[in-house]
Amino acid sequence: MAEATEQSPEFRDVSRELPRTMVALCTCGDTLAQAANFDGVETAVSALDSVTQVQRLERICTQEGWSQLEEAFRSSEANRLLIGACLPYVYTKKLRELGKTTGLNPALMEVVDICTPAFPNRNSTSEQSSREIRTTVAMGVGKVKGMEPTLPAAIPVIQKALVVGGGIGGMSAALAIADHGFGVNLVEKEDELGGNLRALHRTLEGAPPQELLEQTVSRVEKHPNIKVYKKTEVLHSLGRAGHFLTTLESEDEGGETLEHGVTVLATGGKEASTESYGYGQSESIVTQHQLEDKLQGDSINPAELRVVTMIQCVDSREEPRNYCSRICCGSALKNALYLKDQNPDIEIYVLYRDIMAYGFLENYYTQARQKGIIFIQYSVDDKPRVGVENGQVIVGVTEPILGKEVTIPSDLLVLGTGIVANGQDKLAQIFEVEVDQDGFYQEAEYKWRPVDFLKEGIFTCGIAHSPRSISETIAMAEATAQRALRILTTDRLTAGAIVAEVRHSLCSLCEKCISACPYGARWRDELEEKVMVNELGCQGCGSCAAVCPNSASVLSGYRDQQMFSVIDAALEEMF
Questions:
Q1: What pLDDT, in 10s, does the model give residues 147-163?
Q2: Cα–Cα distance between 185 and 329 in angstroms, integer?
Q3: 186: which strand partners?
Q4: Which domains does the chain have, with CATH numbers?
Q5: By mean pLDDT, which of 179-183, 437-441, 481-485, 520-524 is the weakest?
Q6: Parallel, antiparallel, or unpaired for β 232-240 and 243-250?
Q7: Greatest extent of the chain over all pairs of C-alpha atoms, in Å
Q8: What pLDDT, on the 0 to 100 scale, is given for residue 575?
Q9: How confident is the model at residue 452 (pLDDT cuts 50, 70, 90)?
Q10: How far apart are CA 167 and CA 188, in angstroms?
Q11: DSSP letter string over 269-294?
Q12: CB–CB of 42/27 below 8 Å?
């Protein structure tokens, strides 16, 4: 998928013309000319079917060399262009410009790397290098000969966004998009915005979360480009990047269908429930979130506590929740330091498997140790034991240094239970996106597309993607907005250069290609009785073509006859 901000140029119709290919060979100064016999290469290439002209140039990558190539191509009668040079990717933009100036569709132009084949090994001879270059160029000629001049599909973009989830992640993404002048529909299933931020009253860094919440909610509700839907859920969605239709159902306003160009899923997560370590058997056993709530509401007075024990990784990092939530250790450090500040005489024990004090959180871990908070490591094979005697919580744990059982009579036991996804499965089905094995939204690629889904035009941020802190959630939301703006800031979207097509006369409607497509870019049109392709959603991976038993599904630029021509050229010198 690519942005298209200008009207597509008019290319001359060469569909009824026989292929006439001009081949331009770059000698890279004297580098390739000395490594190979270019006279022989030129003679061999000239004899190839469809080649009408071979032009040898010194440095096509320079402005002078490119001008010479452009002049030669203009004066030729060729309707195909093959360039043999180094680093083909640097010519992508130049080929588009050449297409505009010459009126030839850039889809009929190709660049092949002849530099790498020219040096197959350290001791290669001129004949070996010449043979490798001849083969590479012949393969390129075979490919461009079978190319068809097609224009990529383009659709107008609905320059509005839909953000599902009104927590700090969803609100931050909505504001970042709206501040650029685009309309945003923000959908929240609860009766107020804020999500998990409403349950947080302090941070390790000392910033007041409720002030951030109040300011963010105020900005969202007053923003002229944001419309907020509360007590509203998504019922159905269809469409593709640039144009989605999504149906909402509101308790107050009933149903409504929205048009939008991008979707952001920021549905958050929640503290995991537990039945371990006697939770529910005593009011003195609480979770980290409950402790923070009770401290804020004055139902727990730090001055009245003598001993507090915290157990981390409760039901986490083991099946069925075999992942680390990362933020639990930060919550434990935050609450432990707060208790120590309020009551320096309190004894606090943190029982942990591994402390996840990443980045600058290490400073707070050091502070906790310096203030006398005791950290005791335990293993998954030897977990702490918890009992309740006469209203008091008794915690037993094996101290690894002493190698002995330690008993800790505690006034309060605090459990770090981790974070779970907020029931993403329903929305994942509605928007046709993936969730991972732990129930969180699955990004397209964690390194290169960390906020995108495989399905173009849909993005995610915040705890819906993975457990994270407030600052990390806001940073991810802003990254998501940047990716969404890539689509919203253009008037039209065009399909990629390589997309799948269906030859309906050969299609048996077996639907194997539909299930094989990882991008959800194919469907069966029941009225037309045809398999259709979402050209903007198609990423040109070729999975559909690989499973099609009839060669009905093909990739543009990779048709059977083209590939056979390329294979024949590759094998020509071997027989």
A1: 877 666 778 999 999 99
A2: 35
A3: 163, 228
A4: 2-151 (3.40.50), 160-268+422-489 (3.50.50.60), 271-419 (3.50.50.60), 499-555 (3.30.70.20)
A5: 520-524
A6: antiparallel
A7: 99
A8: 60
A9: very high
A10: 8
A11: EEEPP---TTTTT-TTEEEHHHHHHH
A12: no
Do 309 and 351 meet the contact criterion of CB atoms below 8 Å apart? yes
Q: How far apart are the first and last CA of the chain?
A: 41
385 three-class SS: strand
Cite the beta strand spans of 356-391 per DSSP E. Answer: 374-377, 385-389
Distance separating alpha carbons of residues 145 and 48, to the nearest angstrom: 11
Residue 152: predicted pLDDT? 67
Burial pattern 340-350, b for ≥16 Cβ within 10 A else e, equals beebeebbbbb
pLDDT at 240 over 50: yes
Average pLDDT (26-39) is 83
CB atoms within 10 A of CB 257: 11
- Smallest CA-to-CA distance from 563 within 542, 547, 549 is with 542
DSSP string, 43-56: HHHHTSTTEEEEEE
**Peptide linkage before 320 cis (omega within 30 of 0):** yes
* Burial zone of 57 (CB within 10 Å; 0-12 exposed, 13-18 middle, 19+ buried): buried
Q: Among 22, 42, 23, which Cα is nearest to 32's?
A: 42
* 244 φ/ψ angles, rounded to the nearest 5 degrees: -110, 150
Would you state the pLDDT for residue 6? 46
Instruction: Find the length of the chain.
Output: 575
Question: Which residue carries 């009668």 as its tokens?
Answer: 77
444, two tokens:
């397209």
Mean pLDDT across the chain:
91
CA Rg value for the chain: 32
- Residue 477 phi/psi, 5-degree rounding, is -65, -40
CA distance linking residue 191 with residue 175, whole number of Å: 20
Residue with tokens 């457990």: 467
Q: Taking 60 as the threshold, does the pLDDT of residue 5 lie above it?
A: no
- On whether the CB atoms of residues 249 and 232 are closer than 8 A, the answer is yes
SS (H, E, C) 75-95: HCCCCEEEEEECCHHHHHHHH
3-state helix, strand, coil in the chain (%, to 5): 35, 25, 40
- pTM for this one? 0.82
In sign, the C-alpha dihedral spanning 422, 428, 433, 439 is positive
The answer to whether the beta carbons of residues 566 and 137 sit under 8 Å apart is: no
Tokens of 531: 């398999």
User: Token pair for residue 192?
Assistant: 């107020």
65 burial level (CB within 10 Å; 0-12, 13-18, 19+): middle
The first and second tokens of residue 156, run together, are 């107008």
Crossing angle for the helix pair 126-145 and 560-571, nearest 10 degrees? 170
Q: Which residues make beta-bridge pairs with 494?
A: 2, 154
